[in-house]
Amino acid sequence: MRHSAVGHWMEALPPVPLQPALAEDVTADVVIVGGGYLGLWTAHELAARDPSLQVVVLEAEHCGFGPSGRNGGFANHYWDRLPSMTALFGREQAIRLAEAAGGALRRLGAWCAEHAPDAEFAWTPQVEVATGPLQDGEWQEAVDAVAAAGHGDTYRALAPEEVQRICRTPAFRGGAIERDAATVQPAGLVRALRRRVLELGVRLHERSPVRALDDGDAGVVVTTPGGRVRARRAVLAMNWRTGSVKPLRRKLTVASSHVVATRPVPDALKALGWHGHAICDLRAMLHYTRLTSDARIVFGWGGGRPAMNGRRPRHLFDDSVVQARTAAALCRFFPEVSPADVEVGWGGPIDVSADHLPHYGQLRSTFYGFGFTGNGVAPSRLGGEILAAMVLDERSDTTTLPLVGRERRGFPPALPTYAGGSILRELMVALDERDEQRRGVPMPLRLAVGVPRRLGFHVPR
Ligand SMILES: Cc1cc2nc3c(=O)[nH]c(=O)nc-3n(C[C@H](O)[C@H](O)[C@H](O)COP(=O)(O)OP(=O)(O)OC[C@H]3O[C@@H](n4cnc5c(N)ncnc54)[C@H](O)[C@@H]3O)c2cc1C
Asked: Which residues contact 298 (CB under 8 A, 6 or more apart)?
């Protein structure tokens, strides 16, 4: 298996010339740091709402270098999170948020139909399956809550034989299905967004890392190696790198997820009877798998090693041990696929917030969004709308969502968070393995894995 520095999705697209790095001092109304989905959607919304605004986007590498160009391409709403969101925000706000996320997913689909054939947006039901006894029925509380909210057709339980009709493998037990889910070609989506914001007159500079941000009484000045941008307002859309911003440091922690892709395997897909549903399991550290338009299996694992906030270790992007484990899991799940079929692997960082949901907020003239925790493809569409409205001082349905301006308890300091996260990861990997192998999970291990949840933290999935 070959390692890819940018991921299969970006490699599958024709190269485009980079936008020039910032090479002078400029002024703007809004400067956005980060050219992933969140930064580009924010730029898109600002430019679409007010074409006279001067918007500058600064991207350290190239648009889509981060998770936006290398993710699994599952586009989801929040309905299956209704119980945990209800515990956080109350039932009414949780339903409002689930409806807003569903709306953002529909708008993403409509936008892709108009502007982004290369994003390959496809409405594709998503199946959550148990792969071990401990996962059986994990979905039931959410299925009941969604039905009670009047959306039972959106998310419902599946018997084991129904799961087998979707994909025939002994690895799968029962599960649940999200009807209104979609898949995208992730790098195609970020490319289309990049193209569209340029068409809308946004000024984009790639290879322009922001080294400093000064938010003073007269506005914001951001500094890159080649020049500075002076603006009225700034937006930080830096994903896991938000951890390098002092006031936000304790609000997130960094994990990683790794993905492998096979060569086209049409015969294996035929044997599995698998025609395209996106699938994930319900382990503590989940697997997620889907097909590409050219009959490859893409298979990811959320069990990558964490990193300490503010650091940038190589293993976030390239971890041969984790990628080998991910490839082995693929072949276990789908015995029709042999290790020789697995062509390429890659990885990327995950910006984990304490409650698993994104946070949007403001520090003087600087606005920020982070914390997608592995679910950002569709939610970043909503995030761009929220941040644009905040920058424009609009009070709207989006800025009053419970994701905005909430003061949640942060994580402990970086070192204990990293050490605790690393130990917890080992425990979760052990628990998942025993469960999948039907070896039984000893109670002390279950209790240990449940400690963070009892302390009010969600564990990364
Ligand atoms: C392997 C993997 C699989 C995933 N699978 C899924 C999935 O299937 N479905 C889903 O919904 N989500 C998934 N996610 C999560 C999803 O990809 C992210 O939530 C989403 O892409 C976040 O977008 P973003 O714009 O916040 O971040 P990014 O894509 O990271 O964009 C931030 C950008 O900011 C730039 N930047 C950072 N610091 C600076 C600086 N100082 N100066 C200038 N630029 C800077 C970075 O280079 C980067 O390009 C996955 C993530 C990974 C890693």
From this structure: 8, 72, 73, 259, 260, 261, 289, 290, 291, 292
DSSP state of 263: S
Q: Which atom of ligand 1 is nearest to the CA of 377?
A: 11
Residue 22 sits at φ, ψ, to 5 deg, of -65, 130
Strand partners, 297: 291
- Rounded distance from Cα 239 to ligand 1 centre (Å): 6
Per-residue confidence band for 460, with pLDDT thresholds at 50, 70 and 90: very low
CB 81 within 8 A of CB 145: no
Tokens read off for 449: 């894995």
* pLDDT at residue 454 greater than cutoff 70: no
The per-residue pLDDT for 458 is 59
On whether the CB atoms of residues 182 and 277 are closer than 8 A, the answer is: no
Encoded tokens for 421: 């996260």
Name the 3-class secondary structure at 253. Answer: strand
Ligand 1 geometric centre to CA of 371 (Å): 10
Residue 302 CA to ligand 1 center (angstroms) comes to 14
Mutate to test the pocket of ligand 1, among 197, 377, 385, 403 (most ligand atoms within 8 A of CB): 377
C-alpha distances in Å from residue 325, one per residue of 94, 236, 278: 36, 34, 20
What does the block give as tokens for 57?
Answer: 């986007």
Amino acid of residue 100? A
Q: Whose CA is nearest to atom 49 of ligand 1?
A: 66
Q: Is 384 a pocket residue for ligand 1 (Cβ < 6 Å)?
A: no
Instruction: Report the pLDDT value the prediction gives residue 255, as an integer from 0 to 100.
Output: 93
Asked if the model's pLDDT at residue 414 lies above 90, the reply is: no
How many whole angstroms from 442 Cα to the centroid of ligand 1? 36
Name the one residue in this structure whose structure tokens are 């309905």: 79
Q: Phi, psi (5° rounding) for residue 425?
A: -60, -45
Name the 3-class secondary structure at 352: strand
| Coil/strand/helix, residue 280 | strand
